[in-house]
Write a sequence for this structure.
């Protein structure tokens, strides 16, 4: 039997490990330090074969699970925000409602104010009868504070404010007008089972006067354009009062259709025309006086009775006009803005 030679190819220093005659494996943990081969050789390190791959796959599964959780949460967040945005802001902090029937209370108090603020000392019982449906049964004061003298007439009752105290109590305030005077009337009311009653004495409050309107500068005038516009506008407003579509087409821009008054008004006067400097398209102001129909019954004495004569009512209009050739045509008509006077 042949023996393998122990002869080294070269000298070996003391302590140098014996090299294997087999090529190194790529799975060895340290290619530079290859262990001796043989039955008596001691293994160094663990086996890096397929048995260690479960750790790799476990790590991958954990990593993918983490990615899925992050993605799901990232998608849910905007959806939750959109869902929450459908709910009106402040819903959680604001009560859903006291349950007090505000619309019905407004109507009740408007009717009460009509009975309360209209009285005549010559007919005190009439007022007491009108107030009866609004007061508690067996109320001691049938006139609710009126001494039975004088005369007052009020109307145009409109809601100003409702101060709801709970589901059954509120203070309802309405506007009222008596002659030249505007008022507020605050009325405490109680409701139960769909019915209402005045639960205390009302209070008159001032409604305030008109706001102070500052003066504005007089606008610039194009007197040439105003002179050109006047005859065209006079014809237009006469046709506008008649409501004749054929006549109106003579004064409006082609393709524009305007609805007139259907002969319910008459043009008394084109009082003024104000045109600012500009080009062939401008916004102007025209003030006219309309003859209004009267509802008074004609009588032999109608000429002496002002109510039987035709009323005149001054109105201000804002018109968009365009110049085509030598004539101006109306493109649009609407109410004027504030006056300069």
């Amino acid at each position: 039997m042949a023996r393998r030679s122990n002869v080294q190819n070269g000298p070996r220093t003391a302590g140098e490990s014996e090299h294997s005659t087999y090529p190194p494996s790529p799975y060895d943990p340290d290619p530079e330090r290859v262990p001796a081969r043989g039955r008596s050789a001691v293994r160094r390190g663990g086996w890096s074969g397929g048995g260690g791959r479960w750790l790799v796959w476990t790590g991958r599964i954990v990593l993918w699970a983490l990615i899925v959780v992050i993605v799901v949460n990232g998608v849910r967040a905007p959806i939750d925000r959109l869902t929450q945005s459908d709910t009106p802001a402040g819903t959680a902090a604001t009560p859903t409602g006291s349950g007090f029937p505000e619309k019905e209370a407004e109507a009740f108090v408007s009717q009460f104010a009509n009975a309360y603020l209209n009285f005549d000392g010559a007919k005190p019982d009439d007022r007491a009868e009108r107030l009866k449906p609004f007061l508690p049964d067996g109320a001691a004061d049938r006139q609710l504070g009126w001494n039975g003298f004088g005369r007052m007439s009020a109307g145009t009752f409109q809601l100003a404010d409702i101060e709801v105290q709970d589901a059954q109590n509120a203070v309802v305030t309405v506007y009222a007008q008596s002659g030249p005077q505007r008022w507020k009337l605050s009325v405490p009311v109680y409701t139960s089972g769909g019915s209402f009653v005045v639960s205390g004495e009302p209070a008159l409050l001032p409604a305030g006067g008109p706001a102070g309107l500052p003066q504005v500068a007089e606008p610039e005038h194009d007197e040439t354009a105003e002179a050109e516009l006047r005859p065209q506008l006079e014809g237009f407003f006469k046709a506008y009062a008649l409501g004749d579509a054929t006549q109106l087409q003579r004064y409006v821009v082609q393709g524009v259709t305007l609805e007139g008054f259907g002969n319910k008004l008459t043009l008394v006067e084109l009082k003024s025309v104000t045109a600012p400097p500009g080009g062939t398209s401008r916004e102007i102001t025209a003030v006219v006086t309309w003859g209004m129909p009267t509802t008074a019954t004609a009588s032999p004495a109608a000429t002496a009775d002002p109510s039987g004569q035709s009323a005149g009512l001054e109105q201000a209009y804002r018109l968009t006009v365009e110049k085509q050739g030598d004539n101006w045509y109306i493109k649009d008509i609407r109410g004027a803005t504030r006056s300069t006077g």
The chain has a mean pLDDT of 81. The chain has five helices and eleven strands.
